[in-house]
Amino acid sequence: MSNPVKDFTKKEWSLWLGSLLIVVVSNLFSGDVDLPTLVAALVGVTSLIFAAKGNVWAQILMVVFSILYGIISWRFRYWGEMMTYLGMTLPMAVWSTITWLKNPSETNGSEVAIQQLNRCHVFGLFVSGIIVTVIFCYFLWVLKTPNLLFSTISITTSFVAAALTMLRSSYYAVGYAANDLVLIVLWSLAAMENPAYIPVIVNFVIFFFNDMYGFISWRRREAVQG
């Protein structure tokens, strides 16, 4: 539970502050600032940069982000997003917090130890991913969720990303990056009906670049820890 910013490099400071600035500006220029959306984006960006450092504070902030994003999704009737983040991502973030605290890196105690995936992990992810997708898709269909296809894909990518985070795999960031792309499409469709959601699109574009940096950062640390 160390200070997550004490080891930031100049590049990471630039990425974090630049991302926060773009998020604030995009929300202000929308003409109608939505406080939950703005706060969720700021928390989300901060969580991602902490995650790139392998710091457990990332998972604590993800719990906060899940609650805020669930509220935003509920207002547009994106039941899949609401159920995914409140019913899946949030509890898995709590679980990840516990596993990250229990597995600090031997080279740097403020970072989580990165784990190599084995065949059992991959098989478990594949089977559980199918089960979760089918169950959630049924509820989305019953609730007549808008843009059902992309909402369903979002569930799959969110689950895989959250599970890989819990497993302490470098590929967690690839899962979240894939989810970011799906959400960019999903909220673009929402923005066609209500332009107020354009800042949400910008937020997930920023998330995508932060997740890709997270993957690069974890792969570098994985080589050091290995």
From TrEMBL:
Q: Which GO terms describe its cellular component?
A: membrane
Q: Which InterPro entries does the record cross-reference, listed alphabetically? A: NMN_transpt_PnuC
Broad class of where this protein is predominantly found: membrane
TM spans (from-to): 12-29, 57-76, 122-141, 147-164, 171-190, 196-216
Keywords per UniProt: Membrane, Transmembrane, Transmembrane helix
Q: How does it sit in the membrane?
A: Multi-pass membrane protein
Where in the cell?
Membrane
Q: Does the keyword Acyltransferase apply?
A: no
Q: Which GO terms describe its molecular function?
A: nicotinamide riboside transmembrane transporter activity
Official protein name in the record: Nicotinamide mononucleotide transporter
Report the source organism.
Eisenbergiella tayi
